[in-house]
Amino acid sequence: xxxxxxxxxxxxxxxxxxxxxxxxxxxxxxxxxxxxxxxxxxxxxxxxxxxxxxxxxxxxxxxxxxxxxxxxxxxxxxxxxxxxxxxxxxxxxxxxxxxxxxxxxxxxxxxxxxxxxxxxxxxxxxxxxxxxxxxxxxxxxxxxxxxxxxxxxxxxxxxxxxxxxxxxxxxxxxxxxxxxxxxxxxxxxxxxxxxxxxxxxxxxxxxxxxxxxxxxxxxxxxxxxxxxxxxxxxxxxxxxxxxxxxxxxxxxxxxxxxxxxxxxxxxxxxxxxxxxxxxxxxxxxxxxxxxxxxxxxxxxxxxxxxxxxxxxxxxxxxxxxxxxxxxxxxxxxxxxxxxxxxxxxxxxxxxxxxxxxxxxxxxxxxxxxxxxxxxxxxx
Length: 379
Ligand code: GMT
Hints:
Blueprint: E1 2-6, H1 13-27, E2 31-36, E3 50-54, H2 68-83, E4 87-91, H3 93-109, E5 116-120, H4 123-126, H5 135-143, E6 147-150, H6 153-162, E7 169-171, H7 190-193, E8 199-204, H8 213-226, E9 229-234, H9 240-249, E10 256-260, H10 265-269, E11 274-277, H11 286-293, E12 298-301, H12 306-309, E13 316-319, H13 324-335, H14 338-353, H15 357-378
Parallel strand pairs: 1-2, 1-4, 2-3, 4-5, 5-6, 6-7, 8-9, 8-11, 9-10, 11-12, 12-13
Helix pairs in contact: 2-3, 3-5, 8-9, 8-13, 11-14
Bound molecules: ligand GMT.
């Protein structure tokens, strides 16, 4: 198949999922065309079967807001026509599903019929999408996609609760490539980060308010009182500066290490003892799954789809949003019991294998085939 993938190319989970899916499809022999405004961070651009089409927004002084959706729809139309794409798979409803709907109409006008598959990722529904500013357009573009998927049961429920969606939503969970996290391949960063044998705790996110960054620092402060440990914070975003202040004021300047946007996730995860994700909402929690794939137990909130990933008392622990005391006491109990920590680590890795790309990837391919058949039957 010739597949067009539209996503946000940044460090966000939806872009990561879209890119890793594209990498997988390319390895299966499909031709995968990424249509984005810059190169996705995890894209293997030099691999065979991967193509990149940049969306350029023409900057004209009359516009206070540049019309990105227009540029994106036009780029989708061009790419479908000139690269002979079979389908478009758009990740994150806003504005990608909307732009894809327009592209589909323009293409239809030119006698080309292709299916649009929309994958809902989380904040496109739970935070941004349900805002009245966007709601009618989001509802419309979900209902007019040929296929709709969501990354968890929880997100599917939220979508049906917030929007008048008539379309069937298929849950296809996020995935990892377990091979990437296989121990033997990793030059682990543990020694560099914890030279005195401290426990290593990790948090990875885009540092937006929804991630409850102050809870991460406060939980670590409580853990650090009982267990010699370091906290590594990976990612960047609006809450980062304040997090640095909070860590400094708690006297943890040397024990909280901010690594920013790094591609060394796997090397850090392989040396981590625990992963913290206390989010206010989380449709899935891909970062938690990646930690589990590296054998790192997770202490998370029980928001959204997190409980579908992190099994309380098995792969880590979950607690109510904001219940930092419980999160910290669970973490301390685990970190002080090496045998239990080892057991949870094995269980986390085992649970992550359910979400292996080898299991999940074929579900997308089957959905594409179904959508193509339905479009053919319509003609
Ligand atoms: O908030 C983020 O983590 C980024 C956001 C995105 O769309 O890029 O992530 C959402 O999609 C991820 C991939 O499907 C999910 O794993 C995250 O749980 C989800 N984030 C939220 O729901 C807050």
